[in-house]
Amino acid sequence: MRVTYVTQTRFPVQKAHGKQIAEVCAALAALGHDVRLLCPSIHNAIKEDAFSYYGLARTFTVEYLPHVDATESWWIPGRFHFLVNMYRYRKVLGAYFARHDTDCIYVRSRVLLPVLIRTKRPVVFEAHTLPEALNRRFVKFCNQCRLIVCLTSPMRGVLLSGGVQPEHVMIAHDGVDTGRFQKLPTVLHAREQWRVPLNIPVVGYVGSLVTRGDIAKGVGELLEAFSLLKERNIPFFGWIVGGPGEWVKQYQKYAEKLGIAGSVMFEGHIRAQEVPSSLTACDVLVYPAPKTDHPYFHRDTSPLKLFEYLAAGRPIVCADLPPVRDVVGNDHVFFCKPGDPEALAWSISYVLNHPQEAAKKVRTAKELSYSYSWEKRMKRILDAAHCSSHPE
């Protein structure tokens, strides 16, 4: 089957959504489909080829549709760059599908739904965010899709309450390439590679420090938990892996303010293929979250880092969020209250002091990770969408 994935962002990109798009396309190709990824022609500071950047085989095609890039036009104010680029991109998308056929269009951007619906091809919409209010126009477009894929059950509940027909909606959490975690280095080799201490517990966070531009993901609370561990003379070494760089600098200053700069190292952004070895170097992996009512944390989040944590075979301390409970339970992770440094510090200390209990959860978490492979996920989605090959 011919599957055309349409993205609205530059590609490749440091943020997690770029990796997720690449994994979805690779999984579709691995299932035997002819996959083409369409991208806008937007200036990209990353000059590396997408396949080498994400460490993937060249099993699908990436095509950049030509249009004038607003980010390169000095006379267009920065706040209008996205709107202008999307206007131009939608026009070239319409022209593209007037010339090219496909059996299924896959998209994760709701701003592209109108032009893709008009192509009359089956559209699978993978919803990662929802409008603040589900207006009639958005609900209409959702009901015209062949399938809406929700990352979480709270997101599905919102769509159904807004008038989206249940038969159009399924839940499919994010996934992990379990093959990347089959031949991991030893802990000793991983720690030597990353220059982290060999004789002290390493407590790690591996992932983006922010989401949706400026929403902090709980690293500040993790640093405060580290400060509490230090006050209580609990041996640890904190390792924060991820960007963007300006947030790394802010957190470095915060660590200095808390008096823990000597106990924490900031690695910054690393390549996708380096993630498995970085996780192996840790004794405990932490998925924190701030105290907030933001819908990202209570409805939308399906963090790639959590699925990688599961596959890595390391103990996990995890913020207790409703969407996360969709994926893991008490048999897999140690839950703690979101936005509570005291609870986070207690949980980290508990894991370090109860290695047998931690090892038991690691085994069940590792087993769980296999059910979240990208290929299994994408097969379920295409089966639910009932997309069939176009007759020759």
Short recap of the structure:
The protein has 392 residues and is of the alpha/beta class. The protein is 41% helix and 16% strand.
What does this structure look like?
It contains 16 helices and 15 strands. The model has no long low-confidence stretch (mean pLDDT 94). The chain starts with a strand and ends in a 7-residue tail after the last helix. Helix 8 (219-231) packs across helix 14 (341-353). It has two domains: 2-175 and 373-385, Rossmann fold; 179-371, Glycogen Phosphorylase B (Rossmann fold). It is α/β, with parallel strands linked by helices. The strands form three sheets. A seven-stranded parallel beta sheet has the order 3-2-1-4-5-6-7, with helices on both faces. It has a six-stranded parallel beta sheet with strand order 12-11-8-13-14-15, sandwiched between helices. Strands 9-10 form a two-stranded antiparallel sheet.
Please report which band the strand proportion falls in: under 5%, 5-15%, 15-25%, 25-35%, 35-45% or over 45%: 15-25%
CATH architecture field of the largest domain: 3-Layer(aba) Sandwich
Structural class: alpha/beta
Residue ranges: pLDDT <50 for 5 or more in a row? none
C-alpha Rg (nearest Å): 22 Å
Mean pLDDT: 94
CATH topology of the largest domain: Rossmann fold
Number of distinct beta strands:
15
Q: What is the overall silhouette?
A: globular
How is this fold's topology laid out?
Blueprint: E1 2-6, H1 16-30, E2 34-40, H2 50-54, E3 61-65, H3 81-99, E4 104-107, H4 113-117, E5 123-127, H5 136-144, E6 147-150, H6 153-161, E7 169-171, H7 187-194, E8 202-206, E9 210-211, E10 215-216, H8 219-231, E11 237-241, H9 245-258, E12 264-268, H10 275-280, E13 284-287, H11 295-300, H12 304-312, E14 316-319, H13 322-325, E15 334-336, H14 341-353, H15 355-369, H16 374-385
Helix pairs in contact: 1-16, 8-9, 8-14, 12-15
